[in-house]
Amino acid sequence: MADPDRPFEFLHVNERESKPRSTGITEIRGPYYDPMGPRELRDILETMGHYVDIYKFSGGSFALMPEEAVMELIDICHEYDIKVSTGGYVENVLARDNDSVERYFAEAERVGFDIVELSSGFLAIGADDIVRMTEVVDSDYDLEPKPEINVQFGAGGATNPETLEEQGQQRVADRRRLRDRERPGHREPGLRGARSGDVRVVHQELRPGDQPLCRQLTDRRTRDDALGAVGQGHHLGPDRHLEGRPRLTAAMTEIPESHPRAGSLRTREQIIKGVEAGLTSQQGLIAQGRGEAFDYLLGERTLPSADAAARAGAARLLLADQPVLSVNGNVAALAPEAVVELAGAVEAAIEVNLFHRTEDRIERIAAHLREHGAERVLGPGAETRLPGLDHDRALVAAEGIAAADVVLVPLEDGDRAAALAELGKTEIVIDLNPLSRSARAAAIPVVDNLVRALPTMTGHARELGGAEEETLRGIVEAFDPEATRRAAEQAIREGEL
Ligand code: PTJ
Fold first, then answer.
1. pLDDT grade, residue 13 (50/70/90)?
2. What is the count of structural domains for the chain?
């Protein structure tokens, strides 16, 4: 962009490089407390655009405006060689839509943003996590990451200057680590400037009475309160949303073969991996804990009654016209291959159906199942609603669960089994808790761990594959769901631990 033809050209002004500049960068705010439309932006840029390097949307305003308006603002900035930044909205994405962080980056790229700000003004994000998000944006997207670490220390009112300073210095150490990660020969000066220069160090002497702001940014306890206010009560690193990246907050534990509960502990590690990969919901960890408790009481083995139930389930699936295997986030993490194998053995469709439904997680689970051999996975974009259910499990695929005559539901305690029965469908449930609502409503409850029950069912299905219809019907009719539940309950009450 050429220098403007200025009046008073003989008067001194501080000289600046031409764009793209690596120093003396000016970032202006776009829509924030006030809306800003294209005409206002043009006015500003026609007069002062020469001095502006970055235009920053704030407060997630881009998610409120029509897409056309956002794109128009971005295009105007580009006419003036100005890069457009998302602002620090990623903090809200981490707190509220934590399985959509990478989707947020992809959408920013699609709409035409140039820079994604990665800052931690309200959320306690560790420097390592910020570094890793920076690396993800840098390597996977056509976007410049703009990491920021805020440091604010100063004395005022009841604050303790030493503590504040100590905390401030700690953040400066973080800043050094960020700088150390800068690679030599990085792709362009603007980005280099953004990486180190944009680590903001704010010294602020606050007047008595101003200390709440100061505390909010420096006092760990108050930061945690602020975090609580956005809906989360603990440290929220992005690590678990970034599939395939090394995890920093809780290392995987090697489970020795000799440990008496090795199998169960390995399953636990697997479900944690599922959460990190964005397949399993955090609530899924709690569900797993419930299951573990029952498995412990059952002796972590398949009871003869559960084996018989798995056989009846296999026979029922073989008899079905349109069988469907329903998969949630826990099942996807624990037994993707076993689901695909059972689907093959009984010629069933696979459908992802979630309680804590997000399209992003549905897509991830579907892709994960395809990676494990599934040819087709239903669920993404499902729009048919099952009557009688007021939550998102009601959303099913028209050619999947909606049309099915037999549905296998592993690992779920809820009201769907009863709703499916109301619709005349047969439900086979795998649940370690014989007293769960789903197990009680199921035509065939398999009281077993799904990691054992799914392969057991596949084995029976293969063995029964060539059987006469009459034989299969005989197996299903002889099956007594009440007796199965009772046998499991009795094993829990009387079994040896
Ligand atoms: O992925 P989403 O969003 O669909 O969420 C899935 C969960 C699992 C959170 C949700 O579907 C759910 O129903 O959780 P609940 O209410 O805690 O119920 C889980 C049931 O599964 C409980 O009755 C547990 O005993 C049982 N369970 C847990 N782990 C296993 C299990 N049953 C068999 N095998 C397991 N590994």
1. confident
2. 2
